[in-house]
Amino acid sequence: MTLYFASVLPGLEYVLSNEINTKLNDSEIIQINRGKVFFTTTEPFTCLSSLKLADNLFQVIDQFQIGPHKKHLSQISERISKLDLDFINDKDLYWVNASRKGKQTYSRFEIATKAMEGINKHYPNWNIGTSQNHQIEFRIDIEHHDVIFSHRLTDATFRFRNQTRRFSRASLLPTVAHAMVWLSDPKSTDIFVDPCCGSGTILSERATYPANQIVGGDISDVVTNVAKSNLDDLKVQMNVWDGRELPFTNGCVDKIVTNLPFGKQISPDEDLELFNHHIMNEICRVLKPSGKAVILSESVDQLFWEAKRLGLFCLEYYPLSLKGLNPTLFVFEKQDEQKNK
Ligand SMILES: C[S@@+](CC[C@H](N)C(=O)[O-])C[C@H]1O[C@@H](n2cnc3c(N)ncnc32)[C@H](O)[C@@H]1O
To answer: Which residue's alpha carbon is nearest to atom 26 within ligand 1?
Structure first.
């Protein structure tokens, strides 16, 4: 078993744990910290890279304890100089990033320097790169007395999916969009709709799972064109529409997953409260009984009472911290009147 950790947007740790347990057969969640999930598995990296909620993946190389004063820093180089790092294939330029939490009298730069000293002692032929130019990246994270030394397995292309993707002003991170899709419990029979799709991040993430139909739209033809360029035409139907008047009959959609306009980023053409009221009516109208709506919104109180008014039962909710805002991710289920009789 190898110990890894995945970094994730704070608030989504338990959703990521669920993805890990579902996608990696023999995995075990070891610990959950803010923004990090530690887990063990014997699966190869190709399986680990199926984790779409994780921002980055790290393999833990060593864990030890350290004191808070500068005189303790030499413990880092001594310990790291004894580690066997031969498993690392690409031995070109390396770099160490460090973080610390607690009342230490040393800085994160001093921590990183000591770690690089340790590596250099054991592997004098490896070259130290720069923060911008390196092929191998190690991390050393100190929380009070606890030290974790790890090897970063993923780069930015992992969380941004690919470099050609176009984003709009209010685009979601693909990892957050994936968390929303994951919470909708994707099924191959789903009719899936994002009524305010922007650049189509949620639709792209949904398209990685089989579906009956994936449909999206936005009131802006400019962002709809951005979405079209990001999406595979064969899998996703794109529309310019008003999400308050969707072209679906009552009760025919299985899943609605959407990031409603919020903050000063993107304002709807009516007062935000009225907009939320109308779009929630429409979401509820088109959803099937027992259908799910996964909604990201900053209008937390309003969404709770709109849902209650409409008979949308809140299964789960996750307060997030996103781009300086504090939206909540809601998972609603439309009550099935027939079942409840
Ligand atoms: C927060 S953004 C969605 C961002 C999207 N999730 C992404 O990753 O790009 C909200 C979107 O709602 C759209 N919008 C505003 N009013 C709308 C309406 N009445 N009908 C449909 N879309 C609307 C905006 O144009 C904007 O693209």
So the answer is: 198
